[in-house]
Amino acid sequence: MRSIIDITDLSITEIDALMATASDIITHPDDYADSCRRKKLATLFFEPSTRTRLSFEAAMYELGGNVISVAGGDNSSAAKGESVADTARTVSTYADIIAMRHPKEGAALVAAQKSTVPVINAGDGGHCHPTQTLADLLTIKREKGSFEGLTVGLCGDLKFGRTVHSLINALTRYGGIRFVLISPEELKLPGYVKNDVLKKNGIPYEQTTDLAAAMPSLDILYMTRVQRERFFNEEDYLRLKDTYILTPDKMRSAKPDMCVMHPLPRVNEISVAVDDDPRACYFKQVENGKYMRMALILMLLKEAGRI
Ligand code: NCD
């Protein structure tokens, strides 16, 4: 029985199949309306979330299934000191599949080792966030047609931003991609991604602090929020939080078909005035996320012999 902890737990063939299923769900939603009848998804979220938790829950309802939920560790036995391992073991006796978000890197892996049902990592600390990447990939595919030959700018908090780490891990396996890593010095991509993924696979990339200079070369601009909750002190956060703010003025130097993405929530990184630009794709990402989560739930429940 398989869990999805990291985006590399899925092969490129499987990711392509998930995108094909998601596209089919978009065109024929009724065909899937009873696929998970009487099955239960447990959402265990020990960190704040709007989109990820609700899209998992909406996904399960749209597949005809049910949802049980812990939202906020303060309401669960985690607040009494229960371990992630014991929580996972317990919840897997009630549910057919678990989606879990936790502030500690590696928590989803620990849960998967004790769970008797598939566990999907919905974000573990600053480490990774595979289902956001599935949403991102479907968005790029639908907007650009393919991944081949794209120059992808990743901007903001590349150190703590888990969505960026997972996206790099996925896109590098498609080949033909070039990255521009745009961040303040203090928030550069960690070595375990830069060296072990980009350098090791000979992926072309450049690092810069200058968003305006990078802008004209980009096919995708992936903005991220500075991850306040992962900083050791508030002073550093306040100093760095508004380093990059995308405005309609900055959009003028971008390609006419550049795609602006953001996993959301945004704070100040993208001015609301950019929302009306046809190149703004971040609310499309939200929608695509639900369809990819539906496809993933279906795949894992089938594999586990539960549907
Ligand atoms: C992201 C996350 O939780 O990592 N949000 C999300 O799931 N869409 C990005 C963020 O919180 O900045």
Architecture blueprint of SSEs:
Layout lengths: L11 H16 L12 E6 L5 H12 L3 E6 L12 H8 L5 E6 L4 H8 L4 E6 L5 H15 L6 E5 L6 H10 L6 E5 L8 H9 L5 E4 L2 H4 L5 E4 L10 H7 L7 H4 L7 E3 L20 H22 L4
Parallel strand pairs: 1-2, 1-3, 3-4, 5-6, 5-8, 6-7, 8-9
The structure holds N-carbamoyl-L-aspartate.
Structure description:
Strand 5 (151-155), helix 6 and strand 6 form a beta-alpha-beta unit. The chain is globular. The strands form two sheets. A five-stranded parallel β-sheet has the order 7-6-5-8-9, covered by helices on one side. The protein has a four-stranded parallel β-sheet with strand order 2-1-3-4, sandwiched between helices. The protein is of the alpha/beta class and 307 residues long. 44% of the residues are buried. The protein contains eleven helices and nine strands. It folds into two domains: 7-128 and 286-303, Aspartate/ornithine carbamoyltransferase (Rossmann fold); 130-283, Rossmann fold, CATH 3.40.50. It binds N-carbamoyl-L-aspartate (NCD). N-carbamoyl-L-aspartate (NCD) is lined by residues 51-52, 123, 129, 132, 162-163, 225, 263-264. Residues 51-52, 123, 129, 132, 162-163, 225, 263-264 line the site of N-carbamoyl-L-aspartate.
Keywords:
307 residues; alpha/beta; Rossmann fold; 2 domains; 4-stranded parallel β-sheet; 11 helices; binds N-carbamoyl-L-aspartate
Number of helices, counting only DSSP H or I runs of 4 residues or more: 11
How much helix, percentage-wise, in residues? 25-40%
Q: Round the Cα radius of gyration to an integer and report it.
A: 19 Å
> Averaging pLDDT over every residue, what do you get?
97
CATH-assigned homologous superfamily of the largest domain: Aspartate/ornithine carbamoyltransferase
| Name of the top-level CATH class of the largest domain | Alpha Beta
The molecules bound to the chains, other than polymers, are: N-carbamoyl-L-aspartate
Question: What CATH architecture of the largest domain would you give?
Answer: 3-Layer(aba) Sandwich
Number of separate strands: 9
Structural class: alpha/beta
Beta-strand percent range: 5-15%
Largest sheet: 5 strands, parallel
Principal-axes geometry comes out as globular
Order of helices and strands: HEHEHEHEHEHEHEHEHHEH
Terminus-to-terminus distance: 13 Å
